[in-house]
Amino acid sequence: MTNDIFNPVRVTASLAGKDYIFETGRIANQADGAVWLQCGGTVVLVTVCSQTLEVSKGFFPLTVEYSERMYAAGRIPGNFFRREIGRPSERETLVSRLIDRPIRPLFPKGLLQDVQVLATVLSADQENDPDILAMTAASAALHLSTLPFDGPVVGARVGRIDGQFVLNPTAEERTKSDIDLVFAASATALTMVEGEARFVPEDILIDALEWGRLEVQPLIKAQEELRGLAGKAKMPFTPHEDDPALVARVAELCTRAGLEQAMVIPEKLERKNARKAVKDAVMAELTADPAWAEKPEALAEVGDLIAANEKAFVRQRIVKEGLRIDGRDTKTVRPIQIQAGVLPRTHGSAIFRRGETKGLAVTTLGSSTDELRTDGLGGDIIKTFMLHYNFPPFSVGEVKPVRLSRREVGHGALAEKSLRPVLPSPDAFPFTIRVVSETMESNGSSSMAAVCGGCLALMDAGVPISAPVAGVAMGLIKEGDQFIILTDILGDEDAMGDMDFKVAGTAEGVTGIQMDIKVEGLSTDIMRAAMRQAHEGRMHILGEMARVLPGPRKELSPYAPQHKEIYVNPDIIRLIIGPGGKNIKAITSATGAAIDIDDSGKISIFAPSSDSLERACEMISYYDQHAEVGKNYVGKVKKLLEIGCIVEILPNVEALVHISQLDTSRVPQVADVVSLGEEMKVKVIEINGDRIRASRKAVILEEQGHPWSPEDTARPARGEGRGEGRGPRGGGRPGSGRGGHRERH
Fold this sequence. Notes:
30% of the residues lie in helices and 29% in strands. The chain is built from 19 helices and 31 strands. A hairpin with a 3-residue loop joins β25 and β26. It is elongated, with a radius of gyration of 35 Å.
């Protein structure tokens, strides 16, 4: 077999000094669309397949799966099966969402196709992140396919180092950047934003996104060129057209049934019931009308037509009157109520309520053994801060299976990004921190409630954050060239509006941002207006939070772990651990403490109470004691010599007891006085470097009432120096030269 079968089509674009190679035709040729995208040593393959649906599912069934193959980085999976199996990792889930969000709105409404987009990382060079390549390759594969797709779009990342914007920074460069914004852009506008920042002003973020949008245009052109060379003919698609007579009849019946009155009911559940009553009344009229009763296809469309009437009324009321569903103007934040310290035995807790959205946030502090370790392309990833967001079905009064959704993972990640910049450094606060936000009631912006509630729970736990953080969700109503920004949107306003723009931060600047839109794109002017209005809303919320809890509590919860760091001689670490971990296991078992031992001699102790903490410190310090001249010790005879005996007076500390110091009278033979393994009480009489001399004679004289002085036990002129006892033995714990290694128990 020759290489003649490989006849790929390639297009190369240069961006920020790097080549991006689009390729199709070499592999995955049975897929509807397949693109291999390479930058540096990172390669991502994205495939698109679809199947025709006989009937609509009521939603567009688009599935996006992003998978990182461990071989891409020359690694073998660390799980038991040594293969990539099971549910996706958190990172894979988050990247799948990044790919899904910008492409989903670009499919025409009513498309009867079940679409699957699979992105696979085949090679990873640890510099060029595959997530943004997967976003762009997904657009390119869809653009090549037969599916109708209003693309292309490009995925990219913007950083800022020393005040200069950087496009698609490397992993190392990202550690120096004060912003990390992932965005999707078309030829004319931004379509999606996700990212974090370190207290950066809003205007700088807008400038960064606009700069990035302009910079990525070569990748838009490359996708168009690739389609021109290898694109397939698009499948025929005729948008569905509603029957004008049915549209008019439904509008008439909605008005008669009180739809407008239902849509101005402030309370969510009452409004939901009123909307259902309107729908039932409309359906009853139509099924009783001979003109429509025998047209099941028409009746199946009534629900969508009623929803369209609801949407039109809500939007027109906002545009013409400036009034929203619950009667607010466009800038007012819903009433806020806060309670801190609501759970008696947790380390920190708070209830944050904004309108009909209510979250219970709980903070738990743990030891270094509670850190989250995950297997990734770049090696083991260690997280000392986690925020988990839960959205149980009772929060919206529904009955659904209870399972972790991608949405929950995504909302938790956004809240985590928003709070991470204000956390203390691990050196200053060496606890593992977990925040859980339980959504108790939801009517829009529950992810931002997780930010506000999570911040309050951290402060209630006494975590010394640098500043409070709040978040607010912004909406958009765009009619032609006119646009209206909505502060703190309701769930219905999210569904009926054109944008969901979440912004979190401190009074100083932004820490987290996420934007999804339902229109073709967002101009810079709209984004600036939304950012300014979000700043006003955020400052109001921060003020409400400060009234209840202006800053972190001065002390940790009494139920939080107690922590202390001690330093020992690195040479005795092996003694603390003991053979097979015997000693350290005994300490943890006796005290309930978690102990982290570093090769440098630093030992971190996390204990459930102050008593157990002190007990653990004492037990560890036992192995790091130092002999003192004039102090008595009870030791064990380890060796008999002609000139005396060797006694272990402390763990790993031995002393020589010369034959002249064994008794008050002359001792002919050492064995006449002592035997191997017996305990002996001795006094340390001299320490010379690592050589220690001790005396049994001095102890006997003391017991007889003769106080000891150094002159009483002066060094003999000859002989006593041979085989003298030494201080700590050995060259330290095996492998102690390996920097950074830690052993935890």
